[in-house]
Write a structure and sequence with these properties.
6-stranded mixed β-sheet, about 35% helix, alpha+beta, about 400 residues, about 25% strand
Amino acid sequence: MTQSLTSSLAKSSYVQSALAHSIHFAEVLMARPSITPVDAGCQSYLMHRLEKLGFECEIHQVEGVKNLIAKWGTGDQHFAFSGHTDVVPPGPLEKWHSPPFCPVISQNKLYGRGAADMKTGIAAMLAATERALTYMNKQDVTFWWLITSDEEGEAEWGSRWIRTYLDQQNITLDMCLIGEPTASHHTGDTIKIGRRGSLSVTVNVKGKQGHVAYPKTATNAIHTASNIIQKLTQYPFDEGSDDFPGTSLQVTHLYTGDFTDNIVPGAARIEFNVRYSWQFTQESLILLLSKLIHSVDERADISFSRPCESYISKPSDNDVCLINSVERAIKKATGRYPVISTSGGTSDGRFFASAHTQVVEVGVPNTTIHQVNEHIHLSDLVTLEDIYTDVLLSLTEYKEERHTTT
């Protein structure tokens, strides 16, 4: 980084943090009741702010879902901010201390639906973009904003659709930073570089109904289902590693119809979910599960739903490594390096991750997400704004260092 850039940023860093535009942006976004898949004007507001900064913006409405795609610059390095404007329903309103879509600041905490997941992440992205863009060169980087209103739901027409759109335009991202709430206690203490995949499975078992007094004339579907469950739960899935949790299977439901104590059930339905590591693909997992189930009952009917592929981003040998950039930005903002994790549920990162595209998630604490009285501390939002700003500046910093060297 040049001396002039370094000194100007150092002089203004205190003022910028004190102003904390991200707090204002968060309040504006949180006041919009954007329950999945409704956007409620959030993306129009973002487009208005981004167009003033020189972004080319498009809003695509697909099957009731809104997707914002914004572009700035023409460089060969493609960097993206990704996030979602939709939130989960507020739940019982009488249990909220204040209306969920009327953001309130109390004792340095910001309350309201979306405070953690993840309108504050988008607010920090917007504030960081405004702060850093002056120092960025349009010829060095192509800067994308990829925002959807369909993350908390089925996620069929959101980031998945955006990825398809980019592919059709022959656009390949180098780096994608997602503002999901990843911290455990304070912003920056944990980042995500991957997630386990998820697959839900339904198994229908057919037996033969009969009287419990004459078991030889019946086939108990529960007994067969129990053998299938035992086969599945005793299979030695991978245990994972320090960087990635292993594969786990949990039975979530067993249904045999209405209960009568003198009837042998003639049908049973098993529901289970598998969270799987990068060692499986969706296809290889389906083949394994089908083999295990049919080894017990070859007539069992199996269906699969809500598939989410696993992914992991590893440190890159390229000129700019997003993982390293995020780690340095967090160290600068907090004085500590983050824990690198792949735990938790699924995320839209799976749609953008690839062998070429690094995906990193970093956001505010997730301790109150989806809860009544969702909230974060204001300091966590200001810190996130600083982290995002430094990540953006690192794109320019590398270019300046390379030009100086050559």
